[in-house]
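INTERNAL AUDIT FORM
Audit reference: QA-55
Scope: verify that the stored structure record matches its stored sequence.
Auditor: D.O.
Record contents follow.
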Amino acid sequence: MSASTFSLALIAGLVPSLIWLWFWNREDASPEPRTMLAAAFFGGVLAVVAALIAEKYVAGIVSDPSLRYTLWAAIEEIFKFAAVGVIALMSGYNDEPIDAMVYCIAGALGFAALENTLFLLGPLSGGAIAQSIATGNMRFIGATLVHIVGTATVGFALGYVFYKGYLAKIIAVFIGLLAAITFHAAFNLSIINGDAADTLRAFSWVWGAVVILIILFEEIKVVRPRAMG
């Protein structure tokens, strides 16, 4: 594989994620510092490496395809959130309810950027430019959005209980991760086990989830601390 092939795959994987990051960051009336967004994004990139190692281990011990893909979805959602949690959510910059959603999306897009790059390396190395374009477009409107919706769901759960206690936040993370894993696994299984019609349906409900995510952004903007006394 040549350096130019890798560079092209990297650009093709990175640019769509940056476009989505710009789109979602506009939802925050007080945009987060670019350095923190970049850190969360890079944390998502690093999470891919850790996830690949864990997924390889699971592949070696789990023979059932459906269970394997479900566990892979769980690994990816947990690792993405863990990276964002350590880098951004535990920082002083996470100072309003919407911040958790924004940082979670930044981490998800970093994860998607490297994952998409790896998916594109094969076709590009073989000179299949048309296939590479098709793969990139499908991931831009499919798998990348699955990563966004999944991790943002955890961010919404955390933001919703932003002004509540530690226990409420633990419960929120658990519920958010469970929802994210279920959503991600359902998409994976629809694509892998279904026919073309199933794939189209999967993409349609992914976009439906994006609409819901936009609504959730509006909901999180009005979360306020409960009045005392």
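Auditor finding: record pair retrieved intact. Helices lie at 3-25, 34-61, 65-89, 97-125, 129-141, 143-160, 166-193, 196-220.
Action required: none
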